[in-house]
Amino acid sequence: MKSDIKLSSNYLIKQLPKATAYVGLNFEIIYISDSWKNNFGPFHTEIVGSNILCIFPLLSQKWQKDFEKCFSGFTTTNNTSIYNSKQKNSWLEWSMTPWYDEHENRIGAIIQIEDVTTSIKTKQELEKLKILVNVKSEIAKIGSWEFNALTRKLTWCKMTKLIHEVPSDFEPNIEIGLNFYKPGYNQNKISEIVEKGIITGESWNEKLQLITANKREIWVIATGKPIFEDGKYIGIIGTLQDITEVVATAQKTKESEHLLKTLIDNLPVNIFIKDLDSKKILVNKSEANFIGMSSEEIIGKDDFDHYDKKTAQLAREQDLRVMRSLKPILGEETINFKKNGLKTILLTSKIPLFDDDHKIKGIVGFSLDISQIKQKEEELRRLIHLSNLQNKKLVNFAHIISHNLRSHTANFSMLLGFLIKEKEELERENLLNMLMNASDNLLETLDNLNEVVAINTNVNLEIGTINLKTKIKTILKSLNHLVKNKKTRIVTQIPEFLNLKGNPAYIENILLNVISNAIKFAKSDIDHCVEISAEKYKNHIVVAVKDNGFGIDLEKNKDKLFGMYKTFHQQPNSKGIGLYIAKNQIEAMNGKFYLESKVGVGTTFKIFFNDND
Amino acid sequence: MIMINSIFIIDDDAITVFGIKKLLSSVILCDQVNDYANGKDAIDAIKKLISTAAELPDIIFLDLNMPILDGWGFLDEFIKLAIEKTITINIVTSSINNEDRERALIYKFRTHHLLTYNTKPLSKQEIEKITSAA
After folding, report:
1. At what angle do helices A425-457 and B14-27 cross, to 10 degrees?
2. Relative to the CA of A243, which of A141, A197, A278, A307 has its CA 20 to 30 Å away?
3. How far is the C-alpha of A348 from the C-alpha of A334, rounded, in Å?
4. pLDDT, tens digit (0-9, with 9 covering 90-100), for A130-183
5. Which of B11, B94, B95, B126 to mutate to test the interface with A (most CBs of A within 10 A)?
């Protein structure tokens, strides 16, 4: 019977699902389950009767201690250790209980073992993940939190507390948590999304401002995800990330970008950046205004889209010069024509633009519209020219005065010298007559000079309108005697409507002088003809007086044409003052004379009367 | 008194012509004193004299500022003429302009004729000097 039981207990043990061994007080294995033999071995030797401590050499010391404890009546539970020297990280869990016979005598120990490698590995993995999460949360400043809806308990992780700047033993609740958000928009927003999330189950991710326990305003990204179990809301888990630095950096970048853009846009210089194909990739406001389009419309286009072909071609060549030589062009003056023909003068600088590898990737250009400055410069130059002319005229006039006065004084001096020594009465009278004559001449000269001065100093010139045709008719009538004398044929071709603007006395004198000159210069051998015509030409009314008289060698007489007391032809009444005064008069009215002449053929005298208001 | 055969006065100012003639008469004896009111008349007269192989003037008084052909124009034409005889040409001008004086110097070096520069009014001493040199 006993042996039956023995047999049956042996059989029972053999079938135990968990690896189990019955060990005697001398560490000899008495019984062992098949599950042990199949899973742990040893597979080739008879295990019953062998020493248990020999099975896993790595564990023999630990097991000896545990067995000895067990033999004295203590139970050992769930010890784990690495057991396989061949397979690293193989973990074994064992528990031992004392083995009693039916008389409650301890006859050994029962050991059960289990390979827990997988669960240990999982545990380790979990541990690792936990550490990783912590490290990550520390580095990224991402904290986590959890709200349990049943207990209404809010849990903050270490980092979340750090972000809130509260001590590690701080115990938050949902109200306190929400109150950390900046009052106003931020608090309203977080309350709103949390409420909405609880109802709809939607998670959130929001950039918000928070005020820490130390009253510091920070930026955070708050995320949350409501948790449901069997469709029932049980809480929320979420994270909190401190992004103040990121926001500050972004803000700073945005600010400097804004500053740069404001600066570039408001510089009174056209700024543009072009790529290697001379297509514009950036333009400032000035450039956009200059082209007359929005910068969006300009980007991606080149100069051929905005300028005349030749202008664009030149600009492209300039770009290429910079991109090839890698040397900037500074302050080059170019004349630009837009598509509509508008001309501008630009002062342009172009600088090569390099990428990170120091390879050319385009150009930065600056150009300044200097059309107005140029125009001013031109005006100034004209003014200087004018004042030069005036100056020359003045010097010339001073020479004329000095020359004239000197020639008269010389005559006085000489005649007086004769007179003092002359004793003969008749000759004295003759000399006195000559002196009288010289004196009259001097007076006349002074009158003439005075007239010239008056013409040149008369600022408030009386201006009137004179019908040209009528005036010429009157003048010809007054010259009737001369015309008959010279047997001159006069041809006039003057439109009825032409009116001259200017000082009536000047106009009369000018016309009289020019026309009478033309009549006087008649050659005796041919039919003398004077043609008077007039037309409007631009801002002038041009009166042309053409004769077929002597003609003047203009090259030879360049300096003398309108000089005072210079005459070209020995004619009675040709004193040389008439044209000089006429020239001063026409210039006083902003007009001019123009002469074409050929010796022996004739002269065409053109008078340009200013017709501007 | 010195005898001079022929003198030309080229000046458009009647008083000057009168003065020169009067001064000459007090210093020298001369049968032929001709005056011309401009350079062209004078040069035409000289050309005529050359063509008829008549005697050319010994002394010329020349004004600068004259109509048609002025003193400079006369000099240009005159220098070009083939004249062997050395003629004294006296510029007599009211111009005290240095430019004119320098311009006269240039002509002086371009011709074998004697060229002097005088300003109006001419004095008796100057006439004496001019006539004695001729």
Report:
1. 150
2. A197
3. 7
4. 888 878 777 777 888 999 988 989 999 888 998 999 998 998 988 888 899 999
5. B94
Cβ-defined contact of B67 to A576 (cutoff 8 Å): yes
pTM of structure = 0.50
Token pair in block for residue A453: 């001065």
C-alpha pair distances (Å), A277 with each of A231, A477, B122: 63, 76, 84
A399, A401, A407, A416: which to substitute to probe chain B, counting the most B Cβ within 10 Å?
A407
Closest residue, chain B, to A415 (C-alpha): B19
pLDDT lower than 70: segments of chain A: 1-7, 43-45, 84-88, 459, 558-576, 613
CB-CB under 8 Å, A407 with B120: yes
DSSP string for residues in A569-595? S--TT--S-HHHHHHHHHHHTT-EEEE
Nearest residue to A522 (alpha-carbon basis) of A477, A469, A574, A576: A574
How many interchain CB pairs under 8 A, A with B?
59
Crossing angle of helices A371-421 and A425-457, rounded to 10°: 170
Q: What pLDDT, on a 0 to 100 scale, did the predictor assign at position A575?
A: 55
Amino acid at A460: N
Peptide bond into A504 cis (omega under 30): no
Place of tokens 């040709």: A574
Pairing of strands A529-537, A489-493: parallel
Tokens of A128: 């690792």
User: Touching check for B44 and chain A: CB below 8 Å?
Assistant: no
- Residues A92-123: tens digit of each pLDDT: 888 888 888 888 888 888 888 888 888 888 88
Backbone region of residue A386 per phi and psi (left: phi > 0; alpha: psi in -120 to 50; beta: other values): alpha
- Give kind and range of the element (H or E) at residue A535: strand A529-537
